[in-house]
Design goal:
Helix content is 41%, strand content 16%.
C-alpha cells in the first residue's frame, strides 16, 4: 500500500502555525488584512472565495470582501486595486480568477503591488522566484513542496517530472523543485514519448488538466505521485488528473483527490498573508 499524502492534515498544521504567528503580531499591535476581489458569480469562484474567508477567520486574519457585478469594467477594477495598493492597513490583495472575458487578466495581475501579491502571480514575484530573491511564491506549488517535505519525502538528487507548463502551477513548480536540488524535466502537450519521460520520475507532479489521464503506464514502480487536477467524473464525483485506483498500487506515495493538494493552496495563501508583513 502506498503512503497516502494527507493534504487536510498538513494544511491544518500550517494553519495552526499561521494562527500562532497572527496572534503574536496582534499582541504587538500589528493586524494582518487580506482584500479579496471577485468579479461575477462563477459558482466555483464563489466556493473558493468562501473557503478563503473561512480560513482568514480561523487564523485571525481580517478579510475585506469586494463582490463586483459581472459587468464591472476593467477601469473600475483597476481603480479599486489602485485604492487598495494605497491602503497601508491592507497587506494582501487577491483577485479571484478567472475574470469575465472583457477584462485582461494579465493587466489586473500586473496592477497589484508586488509587496501585496499574495497569490504570487505578479511578474516581479515570478522573477524573484527564478533568481532566488525574497518574494511571494504561487500557493499551489509552494503547498506541494510542503506536502513532500512534511511527508518525509526527499527531493534533493531525485528525478522530478512535471506534466504541465502553466504559469500558475507547472513553471513555478519546476523552479521550486530545482531550488530543492531536484533534477527537473517539464513535459507538456508537445512532449514526444511522454510515457518514457514520466517513467523516469522519482517524483511525478501532474497538472495536465485532463481527468484521469495518467494511468500506471506513465508511472515508475515506487514513484511519488502528486495530483494537482480536480474534475467531476461521469458520476459527478471529484477526481484528479491521475487515475488513482490504477496508479496507487504501483507508487510509493500519492495524493488523493479530494484531500491532497487542494487544501494546501488556501493554507499557503494564509502563510503568504503573514509573509506580507515581513516583505512590507
Amino acid at each position: 500500500m502506498p503512503q497516502i499524502i494527507d493534504g487536510k492534515l498538513i494544511s491544518a498544521q500550517i494553519k495552526e502555525e499561521v494562527k500562532e504567528k497572527v496572534a503574536k503580531l496582534n499582541a504587538q499591535g500589528t493586524r494582518v488584512c487580506l482584500a479579496v476581489i471577485q468579479v461575477g458569480t462563477d459558482p466555483a469562484s464563489s466556493v473558493y472565495v468562501g473557503n478563503k474567508k473561512k480560513a482568514c477567520a480561523y487564523v485571525g486574519i481580517e478579510s475585506l470582501s469586494y463582490e463586483l457585478p459581472e459587468q464591472t469594467s476593467q477601469e473600475e477594477l483597476l481603480a479599486l486595486i489602485a485604492e487598495l495598493n494605497g491602503k497601508a492597513e491592507v497587506n494582501g490583495i487577491l483577485v479571484q480568477l478567472p475574470l469575465p472575458g472583457h477584462i485582461d487578466e494579465d493587466a489586473v495581475i500586473r496592477a497589484i503591488d508586488p509587496k501585496k501579491d499574495v497569490d504570487g502571480f505578479h511578474p516581479q514575484s515570478v522573477g524573484a522566484l527564478c533568481i532566488g530573491q525574497p518574494g511571494f511564491v504561487s500557493c499551489t506549488p509552494a503547498g506541494i513542496i510542503e506536502l513532500l517535505k512534511r511527508s518525509g519525502i526527499e527531493i534533493a538528487g531525485k528525478e522530478c517530472v512535471v506534466i504541465g507548463r502553466s504559469n500558475i502551477v507547472g513553471k513555478p513548480m519546476a523552479i521550486l523543485l530545482l531550488r530543492e536540488n531536484g533534477t527537473v524535466t517539464v513535459t507538456h502537450s508537445r512532449t514526444r514519448n511522454l510515457k518514457e519521460v514520466t517513467r523516469r520520475a522519482d517524483i511525478l507532479v501532474v497538472a495536465v488538466g485532463k481527468p484521469r489521464m495518467i494511468t500506471r503506464e506513465y508511472v515508475k514502480e515506487g514513484a511519488v505521485v502528486i495530483d494537482v487536477g480536480i474534475h467531476r467524473n461521469e458520476n459527478n464525483r471529484l477526481c484528479g488528473d491521475v487515475d488513482y485506483e490504477d496508479v496507487s498500487p504501483v507508487c510509493s506515495a500519492i495524493t488523493p483527490v479530494p484531500g491532497g493538494v487542494g487544501p494546501m493552496t488556501i493554507a499557503m495563501l494564509m502563510y503568504n498573508c503573514v509573509r506580507s508583513i515581513e516583505l512590507q
